[in-house]
């Protein structure tokens, strides 16, 4: 056994859970609560992150464009693969102008007279599209980074739906638009939700039209009856309440939505043309989600538990820094990659003094692009009172 395997065994072979501590989401089957921690130890609490304000988590807040629900990632039991639907983050709630009792129409083309997508057939065609992480590009510290969730999605590959469109005669890009008219004026966001993609981007990402989440119908606030999902891309491209799919000229201007999110998706300025937008992919990113305090004999120890997501299959080794200017250390336990879901990691920690620690992660592979990690976007601070 090498050092790395030994350390993972140490963490994973740990004692049973303190009853109840992690069973916050009762819908989680007990099989997912694999033991981890310190052998012979007892988990006695959680140390909160500081300097992140006091946002209300796990509660549907406000309405329409300002509607939000932040997932409390601190409550994710070890290696939880998907977030129960009612806990999945929401960025923009359904418009009050949408009447879910009325039939929905998705226009296949820009003309009013264009054919409509057969939604009944779409639902019948829908297949499991796997575990996928969704993150809002505006996910931030003031919201405890809670605009980030993972779920099992059902849907139909967008390329299959595109076959129903007449083949364009000139070079074209695909516009996907969603209903985005609201009764109230937003305090934070601009209405208008559409994104323009190249055929290559759609094929490479494995884009799909989602009709279900976690084996259930898509809830209204998540885009019922149909939303776009771009695996590995930021949420702002995953248009909800899709009402139009159409070929548009290669030189089409970027949409209002693309312009609003240009900075947050790492574009070079605000490109006036859609074709100059780079894929809005999420680089590998990692952060601690919970600092667990353990009692091991007479010793106080800590377990830093976190997640890694965003093109995460390319990462073999994570490294952690416990304070600015300190050396980075390898993270001994990193769950295997499966695709576009998140991977749990854990770092057993014995701080040598009480005080403030600012935790930062990096990816060991130098060739992997990690723009947000490089900027310290996901660093988090804790106050350790007891050592
Ligand atoms: N029609 C429409 N689609 C939209 C939005 C919107 O405001 N209107 N917001 C986008 C953004 S910014 C994000 S992060 C995701 C959030 O999806 P969720 O609420 O299902 O988590 O939806 C995207 N799709
Ligand atoms: Mo977003």
Kindly list the characteristics that best describe this protein.
single chain, 387 residues, mainly beta, five-stranded antiparallel sheet, 21 strands, 10% helix, elongated, disordered N terminus, binds the ligand Nc1nc2c(c(=O)[nH]1)N[C@H]1C(S)=C(S)[C@@H](COP(=O)(O)O)O[C@H]1N2, binds molybdenum atom
Counting H and I runs of at least 4 residues, what is the number of helices? 6
- Biggest β-sheet: count, sense, barrel? 5 strands, antiparallel
Can you write the helix and strand succession as a string? HEEEEEHEEHEEHEEEEHEEEEEEEHE
Q: How much helix, percentage-wise, in residues? A: under 10%
Q: What would you report as the Rg, rounded to the nearest angstrom? A: 22 Å
* Overall mean pLDDT: 90
**Overall spatial form:** elongated
Classify the beta-strand content into a percent band: 25-35%
Structural class: mainly beta
Low-confidence stretches: 1-34
* Largest sheet: spatial strand order: 1-14-15-19-18
Describe this structure in words.
It contains six helices and 21 strands. Helix content is 10%, strand content 30%. The chain has helices at residues 3-12, 119-125, 158-162, 199-205, 256-260, 371-374; strands at residues 42-47, 49-50, 68-69, 90-91, 107-108, 127-135, 148-157, 172-178, 193-197, 208-213, 216-217, 227-229, 242-249, 285-296, 299-309, 318-321, 329-330, 333-334, 343-349, 355-363, 380-384. It has a five-stranded antiparallel sheet with strand order 1-14-15-19-18. A five-stranded antiparallel sheet has the order 2-21-20-16-17, with no helix packed on it. It starts with a helix and ends with a strand. It is mostly beta strands. Residues 1-34 have low confidence and may be disordered. It binds the ligand Nc1nc2c(c(=O)[nH]1)N[C@H]1C(S)=C(S)[C@@H](COP(=O)(O)O)O[C@H]1N2 and molybdenum atom. Residues 65, 89-92, 134, 136, 178-180, 193, 222, 235-236, 238-241 line the site of the ligand Nc1nc2c(c(=O)[nH]1)N[C@H]1C(S)=C(S)[C@@H](COP(=O)(O)O)O[C@H]1N2.
């Amino acid at each position: 056994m090498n050092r790395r395997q030994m350390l993972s065994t140490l963490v994973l072979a740990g004692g049973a859970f303190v009853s109840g501590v992690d069973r916050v989401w009762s819908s989680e089957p007990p099989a997912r609560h694999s033991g981890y921690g310190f052998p012979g130890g007892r988990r006695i609490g959680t140390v909160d992150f500081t300097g992140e304000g006091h946002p209300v988590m796990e509660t549907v807040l406000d309405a329409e464009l300002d509607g939000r629900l932040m997932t409390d990632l601190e409550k994710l039991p070890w290696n939880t693969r998907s977030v129960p639907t009612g806990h999945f983050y929401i960025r923009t709630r359904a418009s009050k102008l949408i009447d879910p009792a009325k039939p929905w129409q998705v226009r296949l083309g820009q003309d009013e007279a264009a054919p409509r997508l057969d939604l009944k057939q779409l639902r019948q065609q829908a297949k499991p599209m796997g575990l996928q992480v969704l993150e809002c590009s505006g996910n931030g510290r003031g919201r405890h980074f809670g605009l980030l969730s993972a779920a099992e999605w059902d849907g139909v590959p967008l390329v299959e739906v595109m076959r129903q469109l007449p083949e364009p005669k000139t070079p074209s890009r695909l516009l996907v638009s969603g209903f985005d008219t609201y009764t109230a004026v937003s305090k934070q966001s601009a209405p208008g939700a559409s994104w323009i993609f190249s055929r290559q981007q759609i094929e490479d990402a494995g884009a799909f039209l989602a009709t279900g989440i976690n084996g259930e119908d898509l809830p209204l606030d998540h885009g019922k009856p149909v939303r776009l999902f771009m695996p590995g891309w930021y949420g702002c491209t995953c248009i909800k309440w899709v009402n139009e799919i159409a070929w548009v000229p290669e030189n089409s201007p970027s949409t209002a939505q693309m312009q609003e999110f240009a900075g947050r998706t790492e574009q070079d300025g605000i490109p006036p043309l859609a074709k100059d937008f780079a894929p809005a992919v999420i680089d590998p990113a990692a952060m601690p989600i919970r600092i667990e305090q353990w009692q091991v004999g007479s010793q106080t120890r800590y377990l830093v538990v976190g997640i890694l997501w965003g093109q995460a299959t390319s990462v073999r080794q994570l490294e952690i820094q416990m304070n600015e200017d300190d050396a980075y250390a390898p993270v001994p336990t990193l769950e295997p990659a499966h695709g576009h879901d998140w991977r749990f990691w854990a770092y057993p920690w014995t701080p040598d003094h009480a005080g403030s620690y600012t935790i930062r992660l990096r990816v060991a592979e130098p060739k992997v692009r990690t723009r947000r990690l490089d900027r310290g976007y996901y660093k988090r601070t804790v106050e350790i009172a007891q050592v």
